[in-house]
Amino acid sequence: MIAMTLHEIARVVGAHLHDVPDPGARVTAPSAVDSRAVLPGGLFAATAGAHVDGHDYAAVAIAGGAVAVLAARPVCVPALVVEDVQVALGLLARHLLTRISPAVIGLTGSVGKTTTKDLLAQILERHAPTVATDRSFNNELGLPLTVLRADAATRYLVLEMGAGRKGDLTYLTGLAPPRIGLVLNVGTAHIERMGGGPADVAQAKGELVEALPADGFALLNADDPYVIGMAGRTQAQILLYGRSPHAQVRAENVRMDQRARAQFELVTPTGRAPVALDLIGEHQVSNALGAAAVATALGLDPAAIAAGLTAARRRSGGRLEITERPDGITIVNDAYNANPESMRAGLRAAKALAGPRRTIAVLGAMGQQADASPARHTDIGRLVADLHYDVLITVGTGDPLAIAHAARSSGQGVTVHTVADVAAAITLATTLLQPGDVVFVKASSEIGLATCARALATPTP
To answer: Beta strand 130-132 with 103-108: parallel, antiparallel or unpaired?
Structure first.
C-alpha cells in the first residue's frame, strides 16, 4: 500500500470525514473487510453482507490498529463516510495504480482460475516482487483489496477475475486495466446467470480480452473453441497455449507418475524445458501452460518458467487438497466448489492417485446448473461408475439423488449410499473407511462438504 493521509483518501473516494481528530493521519497498510484481518496502519472497509454488517465491528477494527473505517454511515470512531463502500474501494484501487506501474495480469475462466493464479505467482515471485489474489478473492471487493496490497516495489500484479454475470469483467478491468489477459476455458459455472449457454459464458469471459491495449497480450487456450473464438475481440497480440500442436506455448510428451502428477516438456517460442508438477491430475497441465504463457509474454526464459512450475506447491485449500492419515487412508478435499468440469477432473485425478486402492466418492450438489442440472448430475453418477469407484456416498436430496441413481443403475458394481446431510455423511464415511482407502470429497461450497473432508482427514483417536 502506498502511504496516504486520510485527507488524501477522502479526496480520491469523495468521502466526508467523521470523528477524525487528525486528517493527516496516514494509512500505511493494506485494507481489509474482516475486522480480524486488520493490520496496524490499515483501513477497515465496513461492508454489509447477508448475515454480518461490518459497521458493527468498526470499533473492533480501530482497536486492532486500523487508522480509520471506510463506512456508509458514521460509526463513532474515525471514519471516511461514502455513499457506497464497494465503489469507494474500487476508486481507491484505481487511484493507487496511477501512482505505481506494475505489469497488471488479469486471468479468468470457468475452472482452474485459482490454481493457475497460484502457479503463476510462484513463477513470477522468484524473479521480482509480486502481488497476487489471495485464495479466490476475485470479485468487486476482492480485486480492489488485492490491488491495495501493491506498492512502488511491486513489479507483477496478478489478478484473478471472476465473472458471475455479463458486465462483471468490464467493471473489474475498469478498476485495474490489464496489459496481459489470460482466458483459461469456457464451462458451465454461472451459466444460468449469463444467459443459459456456453456462447453466453464466452461472451462474458471475452470482456477481459476486449479490455487489453494494442501493446498487450491476449493468451488464449488453443484447446477450447470458445476461447479461440475470442481472438477477433481484442487488439492485443495473441499468444496461444495448450496441448494443441498449433499452440505457441504447449506441452509435449505428457506422462503421469505414480502419484498422478504430470510431467511434460514445456515448449515456447524461445526454447523448451522439462516440467514435473507437484499437483495431481492431468488437467493441471492446462493450468500450468496458462501460467507459462503469461510468463512467456513477460519475457521469462523457458528454463526459469519450468523451474518455477516444478517448484510450485498447492497454495489454496479445498482444491485437490491431499491429507495422508497415519492409517494409510488418503483424503482428497476438493470441496471448495463444484461444476461439471471440475467434478469430472477431480474424480479422474483422485482415481488416478488411488491406483489399485479402494476408492470412495462423497459427493453433493453442483449449484447454478439451471434446467440442465438433473442431466449434469446424472452424467456425474455415470462417470463415478465408469471410473470404477468402489463406494459412492451422495449428500442431500434432489440432484445428489440423480448421481446416486445413475451410479446404481450402471451395473458397474459401485456400492451406493444416500444420506440427508453433512453430519450423516461424516458418520457413514467414518464407519466405512478401511486402511488404504482414497476418499474424494466434492460439492458446491454452499453444501458444506469441506466440513466432511476436514473431519475425515482428522480421525478421532
So the answer is: unpaired
Answer for the pair 271, 107: CB distance below 8 angstroms, yes or no: no
Residue given cell 461444476 in the structure block: 339
Q: Cα–Cα distance between 163 and 202 in angstroms, integer? A: 11
Q: What is the CATH number of domain 4-83?
A: 3.40.1390.10
Q: Binding site: residue ranges?
A: 109-115
pLDDT in tens, 49-100: 878 999 999 999 999 999 999 999 999 999 999 999 999 999 999 999 999 9
Under CATH, which number does the domain 100-311 receive? 3.40.1190.10
**Nearest 5°: phi and psi at 80?**
-105, 110
pLDDT in tens, 195-225: 668 888 999 999 999 999 999 999 999 999 9
61-99 CB burial, b ≥16 within 10 A, e <16 = bbebebbbbbbbeebebbbbbbeebbebbbbbbbbbbee
Q: Binding site for ATP, residues?
A: 109-115
Say which CATH topology domain 321-457 has.
Answer: Protein-Tyrosine Phosphatase; Chain A (3.90.190)
Contact (CB, 8 A) for 22 and 67: no
Torsion angle, alpha carbons of 172, 176, 181, 185, to 10: -20
Cell of 404: 446416486
* Measured distance CA(199)–CA(226) in Å, rounded: 7
Amino acid, single-letter form, for residue 281: G
